[in-house]
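proteasome endopeptidase complex: structure tokens wanted.
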Amino acid sequence: ADSRTSSGSYVVNRASDKITSVADNIYVCRSGSAADTQVLTDYVRHYIKLHSLELGEEPEVKVAANLFRMMAYHNKNHLMAGLIVAGYDARHGPSVYNISLGGAVCEQPLAAGGSGSTYIFGFLDSNYRPDFTREECEKFVATAISLAIHRDGSSGGVCRLLTVNKDGATRTLIKGNELARW
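Answer:
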């Protein structure tokens, strides 16, 4: 994710963190209204924690994605929330779910959201491979984010990468001046 939060042409925050932990193995990348996505994440985090305590095991990514979907769909006329829910669980392995503004959920091998995504779909489609190594995948994502930052006035700042696998989650920060220039 990039780190710019804007309101129209006004940059509200140039160093926000749009990737939020839902559980140790599940994260959400938020776009749209920061307030809407933050409160949705708080609710889902609460329900996922209760669900995990009840089952006595780590939550499934699919369950978190469906909680986000349900809340986004039932409040679709009041929220502006685009979400990408991703993570790793023992039953299904790695998974990525894209939840659109209206609350539709779709499991995909990769997802992009927010205003910058419209500028990079061609790059994603022509360069994505399902057999990426971790290093190749992180480079691919950093390149996509730098392209979005270069082309979209509402995207910018730094690039925050999060890699989730069976060993846990790893965060990487790439400063704006270290991103590729186009």
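The two ends are 18 Å apart (CA to CA). The mean pLDDT is 96.

Cheers.
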